[in-house]
TrEMBL record:
Signal peptide: none annotated. InterPro entries: F-box-assoc_dom_typ1, F-box-assoc_interact_dom, SCF_F-box_component. This is F-box protein CPR1-like. It comes from the Eukaryota. Residues 12-151 form the F-box associated beta-propeller type domain. It comes from Juglans regia. Pfam families: FBA_1.
Length: 204
């Protein structure tokens, strides 16, 4: 990777066939952070165009919300802006979805980390993960927060959204076995050809 990872222990975020990380250009640590995408189809890196944010310095995080790539701009204990890229790869399609002010969730303590996870079924609320310690519902219309009471959660934790798939894992195994058997047949065939070429000489 021709960049420096800002979060070395964080997995890449998958969206639109690409893995995404928050990075910095090598040997330019005083520059602003970037978002880089690794395209799994062509296996190459490219920088993701950033939205036009406020001038103040902020911390970047990335995620997926409602199948759209999103960016979280954390303004250091003041507020968090959540941006959504409605058309992947198009800079003009960035739209600020909502802002969470620090004072809105004062009852849950200050947040150093806030990440959107999913919309509610009605689409009027967004599930948030705060400081790897709790889950919250944010009402987009009322701009209010309510705590999600779940017993037995470890501290800290990291929440992930799992998407169901109808693709069977057995298909991949069968494909691998076919590939393996095909490779074995090729080796046998080559050995046979080598034996014939060495064992028999045609005299004209």
């Amino acid at each position: 990777m021709p960049y420096v990872l800002c979060y070395t222990k964080k997995n890449g975020t998958l969206a639109s066939g690409c893995l995404h990380w928050v990075v910095n250009r090598k040997f330019k640590f005083d520059d602003s952070d970037l978002i880089v995408a690794f395209d799994l189809t062509v296996e190459s890196f490219r920088e993701v165009p950033m939205p036009k944010c406020a001038v103040e310095k902020f911390q970047i995080d990335v995620g997926v919300l409602g199948r759209c790539f999103c960016m979280v701009a954390n303004y250091y204990d003041i507020r968090v802006d959540v941006w959504v890229m409605k058309e992947y790869g198009v800079k003009e399609s960035w739209a600020k979805l909502f802002t969470v002010e620090q004072e809105v969730i004062f009852f849950c303590g200050t947040f150093t980390y806030l990440r959107p996870l999913a919309y509610s079924k009605s689409g009027e609320e967004v599930l948030l993960e705060q400081n790897h310690e709790r889950l919250l519902w944010y009402d987009l219309r009322k701009k209010k927060i309510k705590n999600v009471n779940l017993g037995g959660l470890p501290t800290p934790f990291e929440a992930h959204i799992c998407v169901g798939s109808l693709v069977s894992a057995e298909v991949n195994r069968e494909y691998n076995e076919k590939q393996h058997n095909s490779g074995a047949e090729k080796i046998k065939s080559k050995k046979r050809d080598d034996f014939l070429s060495k064992g028999f000489k045609l005299v004209l």
